[in-house]
Amino acid sequence: MSNLLTKPWFLATLALVILLGTQAGAFYVYWAQLSPAPRDLLVVKREDPESIHWSFSSEDLGRLKTELENRLAAVDAKEAGLASHEARLNSDRAEIEAIKSEVERMRDSLMSEIMKVEEWEKKNLKTLATTYNKLDAEAAISIFSEMDDSTVAKIMHSMDTKTVGEILGEMATRNGGNEGLVKRAAKLSNLLRLFTEE
Prior knowledge:
This protein is an all-alpha fold and about 200 residues long. It contains eight helices and no strands.
């Protein structure tokens, strides 16, 4: 026997037998786990052939549905309000454009009238200046005493400088250098200076 254990073919055959035996033993031991027995199935047969209607309704779903409907209603109301607001804005914009056009028309008309008045005033001042140029200084001072300084300065601005000088000189020396007339002559001189600088 000991001779047999030294032979390679015997050792190979012995290893093959041990391997097959081990495999067969493992297969036997684990057979129940490898091939489970069929289970009994519960089969329910309906006598009524109608289809089943599933209902997933619950209190939470109902509450969510109501909340969603309320939100959609609020969105619809806001959209309606925005549409109304947009219509009002468009109406206001059109009204503002109409008012703007009317204001521009009135401004142009007013500017035209102002230009006409200014031309008339210039012409009128030149006529008055020509008239006052022919008066002596005392007569001119008497008339000027009834007018405001701005009007007198405008008239004097259109008069001859020689006549203006005579009038201012008369105002400064009249009644022995009356303080009120001297101050008025100085003020008129200052106003004439401002007219010259414009």
